[in-house]
């Protein structure tokens, strides 16, 4: 079974405004249809794929998906989908949204977009959020790495910020999105030292050299087991992501160095991520 730990729900144009919508073509070299439709997703993933669905909240970047929409979408396919609530801590009422999304809507994790919303994820002012998530077994999916949105401060996307969070909250399960690209080395340093901190490989396959290089670092640091499979749908699909991972596994590598471990790539594709995140 494949577990996709990183997919989105957008119902454009209601959820996605500018600058996010207008600048999304920078994501990988062309316009992206951001409207999510279940049938489109299901036909682009193997039968039986289990999927984490997030919306997203970041007023600064023009993105706001109500948690009720995520809950309703997940309720239509409960055997396949797991929903996360989203928070923008720069906006009033986020603590109430956290409790509502968890206790009333039954959402099972939290998506944070520090760079898009413009906040420091390591700020001690967010410790109540992290303590609540750890206490109630809500894993975090945190955007790390670069973006196409010009208004989003890159400094808040550095994976090293989550090192401080993990030190203060060692039982909190976190997934750092996109292997922190292009700060993969920093991301690897963080996931290696914390038991419950992982990274996903979503939205990387369409930069094949970067993906190959990143996985070589993963192999050299011995952290294959800390990677989780993700797609970042609708920016790409599960099937395309699987094909991309297998394609870089076929690259012979640099003379004098071993190639990527294909067995580890297959383990990554089929990682039991729901077990690791306490969501099984």
UniProtKB/TrEMBL annotation:
It comes from the Bacteria. GO terms for molecular function: carboxy-lyase activity; hydrolase activity. Keywords: Hydrolase, Lyase. It holds the Pfam family Amidohydro_2. The keyword Heme does not apply. The keyword Lyase applies. InterPro entries: ACMSD, Amidohydro-rel, Metal_Hydrolase. Residues 3-273 form the Amidohydrolase-related domain. This is Putative TIM-barrel fold metal-dependent hydrolase. It comes from Streptosporangium becharense.
């Amino acid at each position: 079974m494949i577990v996709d730990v990183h997919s989105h729900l957008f119902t454009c144009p209601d959820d996605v405004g500018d600058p996010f919508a207008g600048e999304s073509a920078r994501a990988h070299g062309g316009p992206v249809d951001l409207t999510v439709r279940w049938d489109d997703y299901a036909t682009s993933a193997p039968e039986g794929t289990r999927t984490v669905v997030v919306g997203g909240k970041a007023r600064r970047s023009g993105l706001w998906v109500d948690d009720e929409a995520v809950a309703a979408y997940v309720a239509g396919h409960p055997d396949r989908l797991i929903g996360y609530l989203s928070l923008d801590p720069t906006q009033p009422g986020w603590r109430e949204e956290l409790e509502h999304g968890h206790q009333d809507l039954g959402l099972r994790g939290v998506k944070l977009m520090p760079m898009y919303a413009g906040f420091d994820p390591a700020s001690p002012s967010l410790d109540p959020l992290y303590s609540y998530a750890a206490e109630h077994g809500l894993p975090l999916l945190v955007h790390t790495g670069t973006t196409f949105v010009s208004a989003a401060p890159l400094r808040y996307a550095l994976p090293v910020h989550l090192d401080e969070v993990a030190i203060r909250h060692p039982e909190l399960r976190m997934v750092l999105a996109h292997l922190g690209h292009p700060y993969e080395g920093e991301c690897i340093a963080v996931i290696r030292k914390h038991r419950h901190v992982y990274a996903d490989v979503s939205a990387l396959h369409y930069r094949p050299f970067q993906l190959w290089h990143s996985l070589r670092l993963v192999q050299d640091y011995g952290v294959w087991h800390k990677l989780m499979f993700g797609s970042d749908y609708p920016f790409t699909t599960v099937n395309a992501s699987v094909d991309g991972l297998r394609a870089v596994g076929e690259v012979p590598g640099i003379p004098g160095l071993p190639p990527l471990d294909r067995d580890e790539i297959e383990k990554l594709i089929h990682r039991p991520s729901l077990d690791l995140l306490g969501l099984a």
